[in-house]
Design a protein that fits this description.
alpha+beta, Endonuclease I-creI, 6 helices
Length: 160
């Protein structure tokens, strides 16, 4: 990640507060021992006609990948704890609307390497993911900590 000035960090925080999102997805992974993965993402969203702003952010940070959606929207997505954690650590003091999401996402990123294949600890992080989703007013979310919990109960990894 590139070193950013306070002015750049303040600008990016304002951009993220207004036209961005911080998410923690629970993704089904059949080949994983616990059958799920937690994926943290910071996304900046903009009309494709203003995609150059996203490209500028990518150049300034040295992070992320661009995606053009079919609905005329472009995204800059910073994915994975290795990129998200250092980025949010710098950005968090400047955030206003999404500061709680950033703190929860950083907590997930910091704890994720230490859970191993422990279903109880993984479930705790899934609950933090649920908290982020509630703060974001998430509507399309299908896999929650309750889904993971039931999978773990069915697989006898945890008891009810």
């Amino acid at each position: 990640m590139n070193t950013l000035t306070n002015l750049e960090l303040a600008y990016m925080a304002g951009f993220l507060d207004g036209d961005g999102t911080i998410i923690a997805q629970i993704v089904r992974k059949k080949d994983y021992v616990l059958k799920y993965q937690l994926r943290v993402t910071v996304s900046f969203i903009q009309s494709s006609s203003r995609k150059h702003f996203l490209l500028q952010l990518k150049d300034e940070t040295g992070l992320g990948t661009n995606r053009d959606r079919k609905d005329g929207i472009s995204e800059l997505n910073i994915v994975g704890r290795e990129q998200v954690l250092p980025f949010l650590k710098q950005l968090e003091p400047y955030l206003r609307l999404k500061q709680k999401q950033a703190k929860l996402a950083m907590q997930i990123c910091e704890q994720l390497p230490f859970i191993g294949n422990n279903p109880v600890k993984f479930l705790e992080l899934c609950k933090l993911s649920d908290e982020i989703a509630q703060l974001n007013d998430s509507k399309k979310r299908t896999i929650t900590s309750a889904t993971v919990r039931q999978t773990f109960i069915d697989a006898k990894l945890i008891s009810e």
